Structures are given as structure tokens and as C-alpha cells.
TrEMBL record:
Keywords: Amino-acid biosynthesis, Branched-chain amino acid biosynthesis, Leucine biosynthesis, Magnesium, Manganese, Metal-binding, NAD, Oxidoreductase. The keyword Amino-acid biosynthesis applies. InterPro entries: IsoCit/isopropylmalate_DH_CS, IsoPropMal-DH-like_dom, Isopropylmalate_DH. GO terms for molecular function: 3-isopropylmalate dehydrogenase activity; magnesium ion binding; NAD binding. Catalyzes the oxidation of 3-carboxy-2-hydroxy-4-methylpentanoate (3-isopropylmalate) to 3-carboxy-4-methyl-2-oxopentanoate. The product decarboxylates to 4-methyl-2 oxopentanoate. PANTHER family: 3-ISOPROPYLMALATE DEHYDROGENASE. Binds 1 Mg(2+) or Mn(2+) ion per subunit. Pathway: Amino-acid biosynthesis; L-leucine biosynthesis; L-leucine from 3-methyl-2-oxobutanoate: step 3/4. Its EC number is 1.1.1.85. This is 3-isopropylmalate dehydrogenase. It comes from Citrus clementina. It catalyses: (2R,3S)-3-isopropylmalate + NAD(+) = 4-methyl-2-oxopentanoate + CO2 + NADH. It holds the Pfam family Iso_dh. Residues 46-395 form the Isopropylmalate dehydrogenase-like domain.
Amino acid sequence: MAASVQLNAKLLGPAFIVKPATKQFLKPARIRCAAAATAPPTKRYSITLLPGDGIGPEVIAVAKNVLKLAGSLEGIEFAFQEMPMGGSALDLVGVPLPEETLAAAKQSDAVLLGAIGGYKWDKNEKHLKPETGLLQIREGLKVFANLRPATVLPQLVDSSTLKKEVAEGVDLMVVRELTGGIYFGKPRGYGVTEHGEEIGFNTEVYAAYEVDRIARVAFETARKRHGKLCSVDKANVLEASMFWRKRITAIASEYPDVELSHMYVDNAAMQLIRNPKQFDTIVTNNIFGDILSDEASMITGSIGMLPSASLGESGPGLFEPIHGSAPDIAGQDKANPLATILSAAMLLKYGLGEEHAAKRIEKAVLDTLDKGLRTGDIYSAGTKLVGCQEMGEEVLKSVETQVPAAV
Ligand SMILES: NC(=O)c1ccc[n+]([C@@H]2O[C@H](COP(=O)([O-])OP(=O)(O)OC[C@H]3O[C@@H](n4cnc5c(N)ncnc54)[C@H](O)[C@@H]3O)[C@@H](O)[C@H]2O)c1
């Protein structure tokens, strides 16, 4: 999948010898009578649900109901199939991603994942860790583009660690290349130089097709947003970045309506803190995207609010909150389900092209926050503390009471 390069000793500097790198409590949420407003289904999609571990089953149960209701109001019917993954799959069948789970995911229109992992499996060998299942499903679905929005909602602006005037109004999207670059490039491993010095090495390498396809996802994404794309690289130093910039610039000719700019990664890291509002959509390679998307998400200050989407060229996308399984609060009805609910909105928008249903969900989340309802992670004085289930029920109420004109 990832590109690799044939290197010779001259390219690498000192000569070296390469050694190869080596179901828990779920009260069904009450969906109120939406029958009057429900449109007869004209479209049907199959969704694979992967609840996973910890708070995963709690947030997925809530998001499923929201997806179902928002869909029904737009004439969409879903067939849900729940499959084991992560620690729960290890307990059930001894592997973190059973073949049946991957097969079901591949056959569906989209995949919604909760979270995986937990203390119980922390000491497992690498191939038997829940996290391995996550890498396997990304690889199995060939999802090479990771979309991570960072939006500072007006209701939560005080959760940001940045000054209010800097954080207010931030609404950006990081598009990260997910299956290439230095995390997968070869050669990689450990070796010894001709002077007997031990070394570790990796290779940053991108083939044209890898840059071109992520560029197209990014330009399309910018088009659906505010039409501005900033490509982040290190083209003043790295050949792989110079090549990245050349390909991104070439693909730009297919998108004359999108305004393209380029920025070096060190500057981008500073600008994200200094003036994040200047960004609309950012596209970058695997390693820079890993770092910048975490930095961008922290501008919002609340891990329980952040969704993500991973997309391939064809086939189902994978949609999941960016948080983990939060074993410290699992099973206590304390989890914030909004990141998963917003991941369901991304599933509708980027996975199925159902923008109206997606907007219904996004609006319902804002309405619920406007009412002052907060789970523990985003609670502040003067707001009302609710649990995962109640937050979900309030979002359902909001979805239900929207009139189509408001969407
Ligand atoms: N994509 C994934 O499934 C994923 C991502 C990250 C970590 N993990 C796994 O999750 C487990 C726990 O990892 P961690 O503690 O580093 O990260 P985490 O995201 O699970 O938790 C970090 C902190 O944030 C809180 N938190 C997270 N999500 C929340 C939510 N929705 N509502 C309220 N509070 C929330 C937790 O209670 C905890 O205090 C580990 O096994 C890790 O490998 C999985």
C-alpha cells in the first residue's frame, strides 16, 4: 500500500547493515413519537456498528438512536449490524479483529466505531492488543484519508486553553494522509554504521498516486467547507515534501474554485496557536497530520466532543470519536456521547452524502448545548450536569422537534 524506495549507502550517508524491523448495560434510549414527521423511507443503507470496549458501547447505543431518528426524518432507513472488535472480540474469539467483523464492515455502506482498549488487555502481546484491531480495520478498509474537524463551539469556548478572542469562531478541518509516509516507508529498522555506531532509521516516502488521492479528498472537503486549502509540508528541507508540494499544486488545477496555499510545518504549528481562525482546511502527510490534528483538537479543549472520519477511494468509510475507551468512567453513565453523535453526522455527510440528515444532527447538538446540558467533561458552573443517556435523549428531542426549514 505505502510506497517504498530502494536506497543505496551513498544516499543514506554512513554505511549500515539493515536489520528488518522486526455488551454491557444498555438501556434502550426512548425515542419519542416522531412518526408524524417521519418521511417514508426512500433510501436504505447498511451500517456496521463496532461498539468496542469501555465507554464504546454506551456512546454507540446513543449515537445509533440519533442516526436512526435523523435518517427517518429524511426518508432514510438504516440496517444496523453490531460486530465485536477490540478487547471484547479478544475475549469472545481470541483476536482483536475477527474475519467476520472485517467482512461485515467491508460489505456495509459505512462503519461507526466506539472505542477500543482497556487495562485488561494492556499486557497482551502486540498482535493480541485491542489497538492492533484498529490498525487492521483501517488497513482492511483501505482508508487513507483521515478527517479531523476542530470546531470551537460558542457554548464551550471557555473549555479552550487559548484566550477567548483567539479560540472563538475556530472551525477548521485537518485532512491527514493515513497509510503512507514515514510510518510505513521502507527501509526501516535498526542497523550499525561502518564505525560500529548503532542506528535506528525510517523512510519518508510518497508516491504520486498517494499524494494525488489525498489531495483530491482535501480539495473536495475544502469545497464542502469555505473553499480554502492550506497544504502543510517541510519543502524547504525534505525532498519528499518538495514532491508533495509539486503534486498538490498539480492537482489544484482540477479545483479552480478552491484557494490553495502552502505552509511549512513548523510555521503551521505556531500559527495554529497564534491565529487558528486563518485556517479552513489543512492537508498534510501522515506524521505532520498526526501531530497537528492533536494540536488542533486541543484548541477546542474537550476530547469528548471531537469526531473523525477515515475515507478510502471507494468502499465504506470508518467514523469514530477521537477519544479512547475511557476505562476510568466506563459503565457509569458518565461518558460524553457527543463526539460519537458528531461522528454519525460525519458518516452521513462524508460517507453517504446525506448532508441534510447530517445538519439535523449537528444542529441538535448545538441546541442541546444551548439548553445548558453538559456531561462531566464539559461541565462548568451554571450548567446542568447530565449523564450519557440523558444527553442522548436530549439530542433526540432536539432532532425530533426541528422543522425542515430550520435545517
Ligand atoms: N480510537 C480508539 O479506540 C482509541 C483512541 C485512544 C485510546 N484508546 C485506548 O483507550 C484506552 C484509554 O486510553 P486513554 O486513557 O489514554 O484515553 P481516553 O481518551 O480513553 O481517556 C482520556 C481521558 O479523557 C476522558 N474521556 C475520554 N473520552 C471521554 C468521553 N467521551 N466523555 C468523557 N470523558 C472522556 C477519560 O475519562 C480520561 O480521563 C487505552 O486502552 C487506549 O489504548 C483507544
